[in-house]
């Protein structure tokens, strides 16, 4: 199938824009392979430290004749998605020995659970935890002991952070190893019903906790299609997972065999063989475009409007929101997974999942087949489903037809003709909106503004009945520089209640919403942010605001002369506590949301 003209044009534009940066990056990883720190260059003292505690692997590592794989793990047993990783290192070491290789845990990185920190002060650490994870990954891989890497991580900032850090060691062949989603629990519709009843004061905390516990009930990734599962989708679209491995549940034989396959495969793509596949060559402009197209086609998390540009920058690639918006015009929405639809990620997987998505997009010329995947000749091999035959891992072609068209549809008959994300622009700045979960009748809202500086103020106003009207709720000073750009997902329930009461309601903020953003139209990531003099700082209560995903507009309907004369509102004082003061440097030097909201990348000049 011929590549879609728009996809080709946008890709060519990204390639041209990235030409100098990509050349510098490829030179970096070439020099790292040939001249960088690696085992043959280590002194005897360096090397002895490196294998001192390696037990039965010591002799093999000492010999320098076999690949030594660096494991970077985001394991902790508080985060359900990462709890299964606890036993992975010992399994990986066994699987590596099967191929005459060795493996060592190069380092651990933090894994923050946004589900735990939603609505809490500690959420202000969340976005910048991505930079910390990237730096932690770099520290782990910096020892020069490794000829390959396996990255163990799933959730929100963790996969982007692991990739950004690993890309600075892009000469290493690297595979990401998922652990899978938890089995389905309480139906999502029922969970939302209880949340909204609680927001209205109609049920208490005991009922709410019971519902939440029935939804988030075991080991594995949360089953809604938020940032964590969008991460896994992107890894498949870039060919960085073993095919079809993202959404196999933890704790079964198939899951273990997929991990074994990843370990075996990384030993086959090292630089001493004839199939060298370094991470920095696998993640190129076409792979980044594929990740974006997958996000649009599946209605994925808005958080990736920050993460995709940041990952790309670490590989010398420049992609922006205009590129994403242009792609959205031609990429149809072919998945409807909660919060966009009723079924969760397990039902999506059963309906055909990523093999079906990859086949459909490639068949329609909407994705690049000719990327360097970790597993085969092209992305076409990613359209396969793993299965066990007498305990042996095999792959078969994925479903040619959706097994459930309430969750997955073909490109020829999509849920909607364009992607699940929209770019908005106007005199309030530039923003993004996840429209895939928003009903068409709610995609244009024109109403008076009510302006807040914290999400807690919104909750108080809701409880006091002050928002029982048509209203555009504005929450400003929530950008990276102001307070670390926390997610404002706790606003979903009260705003959803207002919408259900028949009011026209929208959210406008320079902060983030969760990957589970739902039915209320939300113009988020507004740039420039109010803290840096962005126009949200000029808004006043009662100003008429128009938010329109159909026209792509975000505007205050205020006389131009009056608007120009207005002064900026004063930012709230910088908050301390819960470790927030330790991130002051990151807030101070962070770059805009559209570039990824990173202090680390900004200061590195990437």
TrEMBL record:
Cofactor binding note of this UniProt entry: Binds 1 [4Fe-4S] cluster.
Coiled coil: none
Matches recorded under Pfam families: ILV_EDD_C, ILVD_EDD_N
Start and end residues of each Dihydroxy-acid/6-phosphogluconate dehydratase C-terminal domain: 407-596
EC id: 4.2.1.12
Pathway of action: Carbohydrate metabolism; Entner-Doudoroff pathway
Keywords assigned by UniProt, alphabetized: 4Fe-4S, Carbohydrate metabolism, Gluconate utilization, Iron, Iron-sulfur, Lyase, Metal-binding
Domain Dihydroxy-acid/6-phosphogluconate dehydratase N-terminal: 68-381
Protein name: Phosphogluconate dehydratase
Lineage of origin: Bacteria, Pseudomonadati, Pseudomonadota, Alphaproteobacteria, Sphingomonadales
